Amino acid sequence: MEEQEVTALIAIDFSAAFDTVDHDILLDVLQKQYGACGTALNWIDSYLRPRRCRTFFGV
Q: Are residues 41 and 24 in contact, defined by beta-carbon separation less than 8 angstroms?
């Protein structure tokens, strides 16, 4: 092995990236610029909206 090779690794954490993006603007861009529509757009919209869940015990 006379050749020396360089190996690089880049790791980016996008876990909180969508917390700083205005969801309405993101949905608008997905629809107008990328043609997202119908079920796909509705699924993304639903995913970005806040959720609440209630659990009842002994009712």
A: no
